[in-house]
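tool_call: predict_structure(chain=1)
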Amino acid sequence: MSIPRQEASKGRRRLPPEERRRQLVAIGLQELSTRPIHALSIDRVAEIAGISRGLLFRYFPTKQDFYVAVVGAASRRLLRAADPDPDEQDPLRAVLHPFVSFIDRHGDNYQTFFHSGVGSDPQIRDIHDSMRDTMVERVVAALGCDDTPVTRMRLRAWWAFVESLAIDRFREGTPSVDEVVDCSAALLPTVLAGP
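tool_result:
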């Protein structure tokens, strides 16, 4: 027995394309709060949105396109959450602490996005590079140092260290977030001095 068309579409709402894309990405982000990205189900996202799987693929031609959109949104969310606190007395700490704290809360997904099979995708790497470059820009602004190619190169390498410490702290539960921030900040002058 088939369901009458009106009844089948009950509860569905027609949205403009950009609003529908945002809705689908938001659902993807919401789903990531309870499962890793490789377990993200396109069928479930479509069901929550009240649309068909086929319609979802009109907005995102492949599952990978959807993943890239979700990871991009997650990266923007991280950058907003890790925005330096202007009231923090130490400008470098104002950059480091919110980032390390974010990894502490969302480490599983962060690792999956940027340090797993999904992270090997060139588009995902570009998102990660852009996020890292934004954090490096924040460090340059916090330090008020000369913004030279050598300084940026050293800061990108140092940022990889910060990120690795934050991920290890998430996995191990130790040292504390503050200790990761203190260790990272203490190492920075040596990195910038260079040979």
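agent: Residues 1-11 have pLDDT under 50 and may be disordered. Proceeding to next step.
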